[in-house]
Design brief:
GO biological process, one term: doxorubicin transport
Radius of gyration: 24 Å
Number of strands: 17
Strand order of the largest sheet: 6-7-8-3-9-10
Helix content: 25-40%
Keywords: ATP-binding, Nucleotide-binding, Transport
Number of domains: 2
CATH architecture of the largest domain: 3-Layer(aba) Sandwich
Distance between the termini: 18 Å
Structural class: alpha+beta
CATH class of the largest domain: Alpha Beta
Protein name: ABC transporter ATP-binding protein
GO molecular function: ATP binding; ATP hydrolysis activity
Strand content: 25-35%
Order of helices and strands: EEEHEEHEHHHEHEHEEHEHEEHEHEHEE
Family: Belongs to the ABC transporter superfamily. Drug exporter-1 (DrugE1) (TC 3.A.1.105) family.
Number of helices: 12
Largest sheet: 6 strands, mixed
Length: about 350
């Protein structure tokens, strides 16, 4: 057995039609970690999860989950993991109690333990009062919580959550957050994919970002936000059509430190720089002198949204950085991998052999 809940090396998945869904993915997830896996739609997130839970066989590479070879010994892997897919798998015609009893049958939970296990899980997901009601009458949040409970009846060491809160209102989402924190605090390793970056920021110890089938960034939420390149100054213009002129003013090499990036937005421009806060007033004066009217501005720390948009190249109308320095995206993606290699602009590792950790 290893110290890793997941040890995936150079994993590739190519579908029958020739589509390369995953290319050279390395993942190392520690036991007990709350790990986030982010990426735009079609980036390969669900393909990776299905490979890790043995629903897909990789075309190349090696996968160990909870110390078991996922290719040679998939049954042992399945016995030690829980999987909550994007769509709930509960039976709407069964009660909450019956759904959990069916899951116990499917996972081979000893009969002597089932009643206690079901009662424990119903209490955990706050469905004890509706245990005898059919799931078809449940709200979306209640169905999600019941689905999560069915994935835990066999007390797995590792649980996979594939966009578990998609479509839920904020209150229902927050209740599931607390539930996921609780099972992680009790020792369960959690592997989460989500499109809600606030969710990843709140819950995850560490994150990897996948783009076009390759991992392009890795680190704790705080580390990734630091690599964006400083604070972010947003400037709203009276005439958004003047954003080109405003960007030209902001690119003045004497205004911001080297490495700053300037991007046009729908309402004006956005500057990412180490000295965005201290030089913001200078920019406003320069814009006024250039005859460009400013109607609003703010300075904020980077968020995971900024990281995500940077590393997946989805910020629109990017303007070159000051002095020809790297953009924020390049700064995040050029992080050392920990074994002497780096991640290049396409997400491929150059040099070194290790994975993301």
């Amino acid at each position: 057995m290893t110290d890793y809940a997941i040890e995936a090396r150079d994993v590739a998945v190519t579908y029958a039609d020739g589509t390369e869904a995953v290319r050279g993915v390395d993942l190392l997830v520690d036991e007990g970690e709350f790990f986030g896996f982010l990426g735009p739609n079609g980036a390969g997130k669900t393909t990776v999860i299905k490979t890790l839970v043995t629903l897909l066989r990789p075309t190349a590479g090696s996968v160990e989950v909870n110390g078991f070879d996922a290719i040679a010994d998939p049954h042992s892997v399945r016995a030690t993991v829980g999987y909550m897919a994007q769509e709930t798998s509960i039976d709407p015609e069964l009660t909450a109690y019956e759904n959990l009893r069916f899951a116990c049958d499917a996972y081979g939970v000893p009969k002597a333990d089932r009643t206690e296990r079901i009662d424990e899980l119903l209490e955990l997901v706050e469905l004890t009062d509706v245990a005898d009601k059919v799931a078809d009458d449940f709200s979306g949040g209640m169905k999600k919580r019941l689905d999560a409970a069915t994935a835990l009846v066999h007390r797995p060491q590792l649980v996979f959550l594939d966009e578990p809160t998609t479509g839920l209102d904020p209150a229902a989402r927050n209740r599931l957050w607390e539930y996921f924190r609780r099972i992680n605090d009790e020792g369960t390793t959690v592997f989460l994919t989500t499109q809600y970056l606030e969710e990843a920021d709140q819950l995850c110890d560490r994150l990897s970002v996948i783009q076009r089938g390759r991992v392009v960034a890795d680190g704790s939420p705080a580390e990734l936000k630091r690599r964006v390149g400083g604070e972010i100054l947003g400037v709203d213009l009276a005439d958004p059509a003047a954003s080109d002129r405003a960007a030209t003013v902001a690119r003045d090499e004497e205004l911001f430190a080297e490495g700053a990036t300037i991007e046009r937005t729908e309402s004006g421009i956005e500057v990412t720089a180490r000295d965005a806060r201290t030089r913001g007033t200078d920019l406003l004066v320069a814009l006024r002198d250039a005859g460009i009217e400013v109607v609003g501005f703010d300075v904020r720390a980077p968020t995971l949204d900024d990281v995500f948009l940077a590393v997946t190249d989805e910020r629109p109308n990017s303007v070159e950085g000051v002095g020809g320095e790297s953009t924020a995206a390049e700064a995040v993606r050029s992080k050392p991998t920990g074994d002497g290699g780096t991640v290049d602009g396409e997400g491929a590792e150059t040099g070194g052999t290790g994975g993301n950790r």
